[in-house]
């Protein structure tokens, strides 16, 4: 989960030098939003959380029975089914290659084959082995409903649910979080020379590890992230991090290593401290704030302009952690904003960073060789959000960058030709024609709606 907030900084910071980003609040204008909070949970496809949500592009059914069926590799197929446990699930493979194999050219039939390939091979030789029973109801085909994640569904019913939000990249958490704050995922031969950065989705195996050997105490990411522009134009921001272990180092298919794992935070969910521009601009303090300061800022009414909030493994919704606990953690964050003085000028964007190997039936649109990746849930919570609206626009995390740039930077883009640290990224994703506009999820002419404070499940 990700929220950008500058602890201890109020909403009085100047924005001189950016045309169209005046502080003045005007009816019917995007600038009514003075605080953006991005909450990024983990590893859920849209169908796995909202596949049965009314009027959304969910699991295809006829008379309530799914009409889609995914081959299980041993002569049968499996339809999506409600998770009987409501909590314990394991997900599946979710690296860059796994995503493309799951999609399988648009057939959307690789989910079981990719995750259980070893089991399938063994069951073809010994079909009566007890372990083969798992192939009849593989976890990647399970989904949850309103009875199991009631608060998430309540937010969808009362605010905005986005049913075509796609991960910006093929693959797992690190590139998704890099895209979230910078619009790119790359590997840099020299993190002090942005021109040496090249697109990379693999993560630790062939990613920053080589840089670490050459620069063991230096930054990892040499290209420019959004905070470069925020800092330049005095837009306040912060990244709040919950201390704890990172899930892919505990339960997932990605082999983590020391620098990315960290002793007190999921480092590959919180990459901002390792950006060269963050270090050189002296922004290290706001790039790694303890979560307690987020709650203090919401209570005092001192939320920064932009905030990212990152969970630990237990609160992340990552397979292996109880979704009830992740939901409760998200609810506590949202409640704290709603009960604070900044609620009537805030937009909360809630999403899940990748699909976690879970089934989804929608083929991702092609933008470039890196994505889009598979579909994930997206929710907008704000006093100006349309009530009960299902947004069918094609969206990705690039839309968060675009909204922040339009609201606070007068539409200025994080452009590799003009951002001060030129880099060779292949495109400026915010300007892709296929990308929708998050402003469509708001009615800025309406009176700000009152808070909807929900009970925690569990408390």
Describe this structure in words.
This protein is of the alpha/beta class. It has 13 helices and 17 strands. Strands 1, 8, 11, 12, 13, 14, 15, 16 and 17 form a nine-stranded mixed beta sheet that branches. A two-stranded antiparallel sheet has the order 2-3. It has a two-stranded antiparallel ribbon with strand order 4-5. A hairpin with a 2-residue loop joins strand 2 (61-62) and strand 3 (65-66). The longest helix has 16 residues, at 323-338. The two termini are 19 Å apart.
SSE diagram, text form:
Layout: E1 35-41, H1 46-50, E2 61-62, E3 65-66, E4 70-71, E5 77-78, E6 81-82, H2 96-103, H3 111-115, H4 117-125, E7 142-143, H5 150-158, E8 160-166, H6 173-182, E9 186-188, E10 197-199, H7 208-214, H8 226-232, E11 237-241, H9 258-261, H10 276-280, E12 289-290, H11 291-300, E13 306-310, H12 323-338, E14 346-352, E15 375-381, E16 389-391, E17 395-396, H13 398-408
Parallel strand pairs: 1-13, 1-14, 6-7, 8-16, 8-17, 11-12, 11-13
Antiparallel strand pairs: 2-3, 4-5, 8-15, 9-10, 14-15
């Amino acid at each position: 989960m990700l929220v950008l907030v500058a602890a201890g900084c109020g909403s009085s910071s100047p924005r001189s030098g950016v045309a169209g980003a005046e502080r003045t609040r005007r009816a019917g204008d995007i600038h009514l939003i003075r605080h953006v909070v991005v909450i990024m949970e983990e590893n859920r496809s849209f169908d796995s959380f909202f596949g049965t949500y009314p009027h959304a592009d969910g699991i295809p059914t006829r008379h309530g029975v799914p009409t889609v069926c995914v081959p299980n590799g041993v002569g049968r197929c499996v339809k999506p089914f409600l998770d009987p446990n409501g909590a314990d699930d394991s997900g599946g493979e979710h690296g860059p290659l796994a995503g493309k194999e799951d999609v399988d050219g648009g057939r959307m039939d690789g989910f079981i084959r990719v995750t259980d390939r070893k089991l399938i091979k063994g069951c073809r030789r010994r079909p009566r082995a007890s372990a083969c029973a798992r192939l009849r109801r593989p976890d990647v085909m399970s989904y949850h409903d309103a009875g199991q994640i009631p608060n998430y569904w309540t937010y969808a019913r009362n605010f905005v649910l986005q049913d075509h939000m796609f991960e910006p990249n093929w693959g797992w958490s690190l590139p998704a979080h890099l895209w979230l704050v910078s619009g790119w995922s790359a590997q840099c031969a020299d993190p002090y020379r942005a021109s040496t950065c090249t697109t990379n989705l693999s993560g630790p195996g062939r990613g920053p590890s080589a840089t670490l050997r050459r620069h063991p105490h230096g930054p990892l990411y040499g290209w420019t992230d959004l905070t470069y522009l925020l800092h330049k134009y005095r837009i306040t921001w912060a990244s709040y991090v919950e201390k704890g272990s990172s899930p892919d180092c505990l339960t997932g298919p990605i082999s983590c290593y020391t620098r990315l794992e960290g002793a007190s935070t999921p480092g590959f969910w919180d990459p901002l401290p390792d950006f060269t521009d963050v270090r050189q601009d002296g922004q290290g303090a706001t790039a790694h704030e303890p979560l307690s300061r987020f709650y203090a800022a919401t209570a005092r009414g001192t939320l920064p302009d932009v905030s990212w909030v990152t969970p630990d493994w237990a609160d992340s919704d990552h397979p292996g952690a109880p979704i009830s606990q992740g939901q409760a953690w998200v609810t506590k964050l949202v409640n704290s904003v709603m009960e604070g003085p900044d609620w009537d000028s805030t937009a909360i964007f809630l999403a899940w960073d990748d699909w976690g190997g879970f089934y989804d039936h929608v083929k991702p649109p092609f933008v470039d060789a890196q994505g889009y990746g598979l579909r994930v849930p997206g929710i907008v919570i704000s006093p100006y959000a349309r009530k009960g609206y299902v947004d069918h626009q094609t969206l990705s995390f690039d839309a968060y960058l675009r909204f922040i740039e339009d609201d606070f930077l007068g539409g200025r883009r994080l452009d590799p030709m003009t951002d001060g640290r030129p880099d060779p990224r292949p495109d400026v994703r915010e300007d892709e024609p296929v990308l929708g506009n998050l402003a469509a999820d708001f009615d800025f002419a309406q009176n700000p709606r009152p808070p909807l404070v929900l009970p925690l499940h569990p408390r």
